[in-house]
Predict the 3D structure of the following.
Amino acid sequence: MRKPQDSFRPSRRLLFAAGTAAAASTVAASAAPASAAEAAAGSPAAAMAAADGLTSLGNYGSGVLGAWDRQARAISNEAQIRRTRESDGVFMFGDSIGVQDGPPLARQLSKLGISIAVHNWAGRPVTPAVDALETWAQDYGLPHRILMSVGSNDIFTPPAVAAQVDRTMQIVGEERTVYWVNVQAARTAHGPDVKVADQRNSAWINLQLADAQRRYDNLRIVHWAEHLASSPNRLARYLRDGLHPSVTLGQNARNGLIIDAIKAG
């Protein structure tokens, strides 16, 4: 069976363009280090080589992931999980963006007659989110739609993402659909070198998602990064800190992309 054609299948060039747009705007007042700037427009291997020199900022230039296990979380109770599974709704696994944007997303889905159970945890990278997916699969079974709203916290170790996408697809099997929101990070609280690293690493993560989509018929990418980069001023208006959606403008935009993807199937 041929893989369904995605309504927006970006090229590798477009993904890198989306991944560097915010860096260009936020670093305009300061010249970025030449090696980081070159890596942002080059290959993942070049990005890793440049980032390896930024040892004080972690191996990849964005810093080091801090402890997240005591940060804010929003996890559905067992009754809601079972109701969602029985009604074939949506299971969502997210990070701090999910904690913030999950409640309005649930309200929008409810209007469409779709229930949702969430496992959102601020600061969490992809690997423990997939651990949670695996636990729910074993304990409750899975509905036919899985929403992965994670990856932003993997800018600190971007190579980890590809294996976890593969693991996700193995857990859900071929009969379910995974909707994965790609990432955009250029944290405004940090200096220009970190912003460039954030962008480079975001693009690297998004390339891994795009590559995985070519292998899995049932993986749908929600193109958040491209949406932000496609129009002037969206990055400033839709993100409040270079990462988290602004409330309510960016929040509505991102949730709208998710709703559209789910409705498209």
Q: What stands out?
A: The longest strand covers residues 116-121. The radius of gyration is 18 Å.
